[in-house]
Design a protein that fits this description.
The protein is of the alpha/beta class. 30% of the residues lie in helices and 22% in strands. The protein contains eleven helices and 19 strands. Strands 1, 2, 13, 14, 15, 16, 17, 18 and 19 form a nine-stranded mixed sheet that branches. Strands 3-4-5-6-7-9-11-12 form an eight-stranded parallel beta barrel. The protein binds pyridoxal-5'-phosphate.
Length: 402
């Protein structure tokens, strides 16, 4: 892989014809070390956010030993990339064949579920995988449905059992599991630490209702990154309230606290370089889009930071929207993306903070989707981990009490 100082150096050296993905391994390693050192429990990496084997190796080297995998393909990928890693199959609806293969061939012992049907499926499939005997080494995590009200992307509809059924499901799961967990997901890009307090209070109610011994509390993902218009509080605040609330839960003496960050571990890992192929007033036609790494920019109106990669451009900027390269009208990104007024065809733009749910979403629709990959040494466009962040809730003359 070619290593350059920054995106401008890549443009000067290669003038890439395809969208180029820029990797920043130092940024991902820093994020991983932050979670490993500061989260008051174990941090699993949610592989779906970015399954790049290069990234997986960076996270492993930085101390992330456990991986949240959600499909048999992710199980195989992580097992072949990191043979020593602990894999946790945290999708609450799995194919029986996936459970059998995961248990038998890849050493997976941790599974999540949110229904008695899935519990039965896990019981039968792991018994088959264990030569006809119910295994005694299963860790089963019951997923609770919690509110996504503080998050930019909801995960509240599809998965999770409600308090009305959680008690019974926890009791039934306790019969099968060697180790019993409760997990949830507050939604992605959670903008308030309170989301986790509220969810953990629901966990408390479920445990009290079930009167079972719980060994693991898994607070899921949802830890935020920094994007234009989305300045979350420092992650230390999230960790602090999670720790305090967890400590007051009625769990086993030797219980463990887990989290499963995806976005927060990899958002800073990638940016991309795109080329402007046409300008129509305040609309720029670029060579990546809704079917490429910019799915979220198109489909959920996510705003990513941008910069023009040309010396001598006008200092005056104006808001632009983007069209991607496919023939689909939906291949459109509203932004607004603030760029110099004299931007023109042939110019290159760097779009930042695309490590999470960016490169991972690429398709080959309409013949696009190829890309070149470079490593760069400069800083990502924003960082939670550099130690120079100001708390956005604290202004010069108003101090908020935590
Ligand atoms: C079960 C589970 N854990 C963790 C994650 C990662 O979430 P995030 O990227 O918001 O941290 C997801 C994302 O969908 C998920 O479904």
């Amino acid at each position: 892989m070619h290593i350059h100082q920054d995106a401008l150096a890549v443009v000067r050296a290669a003038a890439p014809d395809q969208p180029a993905i820029l990797n920043r391994p130092h940024a991902a390693a820093r994020a991983a070390r932050f979670f490993v050192e500061k989260f008051p429990g174990r941090s699993l990496y949610a592989v779906k956010a970015n399954p790049s084997p290069d990234l997986l190796r960076v996270l492993w080297e930085a101390g992330v030993t456990h991986y949240d995998v959600a499909s048999i393909a992710e199980v195989r990928l992580v097992r072949s990339t990191l043979p020593q890693a602990t894999l946790c199959f945290m999708h609450p609806v799995k194919a029986p064949s996936a459970i059998v293969e995961a248990y038998r061939d890849h050493g997976v012992r941790v599974f999540s579920l949110d229904s008695v049907e899935e519990l039965e499926k896990i019981r039968l499939a792991t018994t088959e995988a264990n030569g006809g005997v119910l295994p005694e080494d299963l860790t089963l995590c019951v997923r609770l449905r919690v509110s996504s009200e503080y998050s930019e992307l909801s995960l509240a509809s599809k998965f999770g059992c409600d308090l009305t059924t959680a008690g019974e499901l926890l009791q039934a799961t306790r019969q099968v599991a060697d180790s019993l967990g409760v997990c949830f997901h507050v939604g992605s890009q959670s903008m308030s630490p309170h989301a986790y307090v509220q969810a953990l209070e629901k966990v408390r109610a479920a445990i009290v209702d079930a009167s079972v011994t719980v060994d693991i509390i898994d607070v899921g993902g949802g830890f935020p990154s920094i994007y234009p218009g989305m300045e979350p509080p420092p992650l230390e605040d999230y960790f602090g309230v999670i720790d305090r609330t967890y400590e007051s839960l009625p769990v086993s003496y030797s219980a463990e606290l887990w989290c499963e960050p995806g976005r927060a571990l990899c958002a800073e890992y990638n940016s991309i370089i795109v080329r402007v192929d046409k300008r129509r007033e305040d609309e720029l036609f670029i060579n990546d889009g809704a079917y490429g790494a910019l799915f979220d920019a198109a489909h959920v109106g996510w705003r990513f930071p941008v910069r023009l990669l040309r010396d001598g451009a006008s200092a005056e900027t104006e808001p632009f929207s983007f069209y991607g390269p496919t023939c689909d009208d939906m291949d459109h990104m509203d932004g607004p993306f603030e760029l110099p007024v004299d931007i023109k065809p042939g110019d290159y733009i760097e779009i930042g903070m695309l490590g999470a749910y960016g490169a991972a979403m690429k398709t080959a629709f309409n013949g696009f989707g190829a890309n070149e990959v470079y490593e760069v040494l400069d800083e990502p466009m924003a960082s939670q981990y550099r130690g120079d962040r100001r708390d956005p809730r604290v202004s010069d003359n108003v101090v908020s009490l935590r």
